[in-house]
Amino acid sequence: MEETPQIDNSLALKELTDKINKVMKYADGDISKAKEIVSGNYQDFIVVKGSMKSDKDGESGVFLVFVHRYRHILIDKLVVVAPGIESFSKITLASPWLAYFNAMHEVLENTKVSSDKMAKLSNEIQKELTPPIISQLIGKLQNHDTTSVSVQFEKICGYSFGNNNFIVQLDFENITSLNYEENVPPYYSKRAQKEQQTKEAATKKIDPSAIDTSDEFEAKKQILNADGNTIINGELSLSPVKGKFISELELGDVVGIKIKDNSKKAMNIIRQFQLMSPEGKLKKVKGKIIFLKKTEKGYTVLVQIAPLVIINIIEEEEIKVECYSPANLGSKSEKKTKSAAPLVIIGAAITFMILIALIIILNN
Fold first, then answer.
1. Higher-confidence residue: 350 or 160?
2. pTM for the whole thing?
3. Considering Cα of 95, then 96, then 97, then 98, what sign does the dihedral take?
4. Where are the strands (E) in the chain, listed by range?
5. How many Å apart are CA 149 and CA 145, to the nearest integer?
């Protein structure tokens, strides 16, 4: 009698475990809920698909907004804005969200888009969609009241562009956080890699010897760009009590900073390094000072927060900044050493006197 071959389930178990790990952060650490999400029995996300058009300036656009159904927080938002409507002719609200997502990024990669307006709208969505507002929107969507939600997004578009003539149409789908995790973040990673490769190919043609060094700061930025670095804007994190004056900072000091940049490359870095909290607030990050110069307008600082990621900071005033440099700790250790020195001397003297006394006693 032949034995029935045993099926090795180790691979399937690993895949299941990986999927559960991906969604645990959305399930508040509840493994039972995470399993329900992975199985598709519990759809914890709502994705809003939207299209917008303005007759006033001829701008059109599409967006996707991902919200958490029971935590009522904004997870992510994707926006594409371009002149005219031809670019979006293949994108329809009837399409499943993933097809909608892929079509959006096909436009993004093959069309001249309005990057500034995209950043403005993305920021406005981030600002307006607070948990209370999201709670209201979810209630309306669950009652299939897409008209009221469309009006809400028309207002957001109006705030962003200073134009109240936007017409917004939208639809929505219930999906799982696993659907999101397996499709959206991987796309960001691939896009970031592609942009980096394109940048590296372009910068290889730059001859460092041809860089104009008359402006030290600009020369430094050109060299960094030539080496394939991404430079975005930011600001120093303040620490009025325990901080270090900006005039006292040195190369190599580690300081706290926040990104302050609405560009597409900045948004990619924020996503890549997960610098946005679930509440929509930017997290602080540490970085090492690689360039520091006092100018007529204040201070110019370049801080490296990761390989090939540089933060450009211009500060006009003398401020105290959060500094993690070992130099900050040096004064305390020196004081401790100095304060301990007299005790060491006294202890040595007492020990010496005891030894002398013992010698005298033994000799007697």
1. 160
2. 0.57
3. negative
4. 45-54, 59-68, 74-83, 166-175, 230-236, 244-245, 254-259, 285-295, 298-306, 309-315, 320-321
5. 7
